[in-house]
Amino acid sequence: MSKIILSINAGSSSVKISVYRASLGQDPKELAETQIDGLTAPPPQLKYTRGGESIAKNKQLDSKVTSQNDAFKYMLDELTNDPSFSAITKKEDIAIACHRVVHGGDFDAPKIINDETYHRLEALTDLAPLHNASALEIVKFCLKELPGTKNVAVFDSQFHQTIPEHICTYPIDLEIAKKNKLRKYGFHGISYSFITRSVAAFLGKEVGETSLICLHLGSGASACAIKGGKSWDTSMGLTPLAGLPGATRSGSVDPSLVFHYAANVGKLSPSSTKELHISRAEEILNKESGWKSLTGTTNFGTIASSDDPKMKLAFDIMVDRICHYVGSYYVSLGGKVDALVFAGGIGEKSDLLRKKVTEQAACLGFVIDSDLNGKGIKDVVQDIGAKSARHKTLVCQTDEQFEMARDCAVDEKYFY
């Protein structure tokens, strides 16, 4: 028996929905994908593909679509009212809705969401106020408006529950750390799970025998050391702010920096609400830093192709910080590395960034083939490394929506 699975990925300024048909124990098959971007930079724009055919591309929407929940409701109506899309003709056709939830605390597997688990997830929002709230708004809507649909939370942090204690523990008072749940959690785990499985299959190895250094590089960027198929270390920490810089995130800085940056950093931000407790410090480091603060743009393609000194500085900072983690993880894994893997929008598209990182890391045995690196990335996993190199260098087109739907399709407790 096949079922329709909705895979919902709410980002900071976008919402993406993928629709799959799935049978228990089998990989789901994508039927349609729709996305609304630009929620924080109006007008929002809609993309919609069905069966590989583009139905709408960058269609401008009216100003009433301002939140992630607005975007979700708009796209759900589009899907159910599309006369050419027979998979969903009414809301009751959706058997499972899986939601990407960034911070899952100590959860090490997806959770079926009922009122009790919803309140547990709500309690975690204080650990990641800028990331969990939008997903939970959509979850709340689904619980109310899709009563016959099973809702499943898939967590970006669950993949990293295998990080050993000496790596995930911060050197602070242990009792306070435990009481306030202060430790490294790590994120982008749904992506790293997909990458690990896909690269292991590409290499013809068992997942449990595969060790990688993975780079998920997008407007949010992170690095991960995979040891024997499991997360061993990752650059993000208690929140997604730590580690690599991003479009508007600072990445790791001296913890005291923010106090020298502004006098009122401990106060609540003007954008705080009773659901969202954001300090001015969190707002500065998460939303007013990164490449945008250095260059005025969040478009890394523009940064990589410019000769402007500010753009070059931002690019060089990114390369430097990435190489910091590549070198550190290589040592942490004892040099037993099957491949360096680039993923995410920037990892997949910026051949110049891949070239500069591997040039810097050549001493570790990562060398790319210029011709292979210059080609478009078409396959799920593509080899761009020189044949003579000690270790492989790969690009993986990661797919978080697929991985979430697969989690629900391969385990009967989520599927039935």
TrEMBL record:
Organism: Hyphodiscus hymeniophilus
Any GO MF annotation of the entry: ATP binding
Lineage: Eukaryota, Fungi, Dikarya, Ascomycota, Pezizomycotina
Transmembrane segments: none
SUPFAM superfamilies: Actin-like ATPase domain
Binding site for Mg(2+): N9, E400
Binding-site residues for ATP, renumbered to this chain: K16, H216, L217, G218, S219, G220
Name of this chain's protein: Probable acetate kinase
Pathway(s) it belongs to: Metabolic intermediate biosynthesis; acetyl-CoA biosynthesis; acetyl-CoA from acetate: step 1/2
Active site: D156
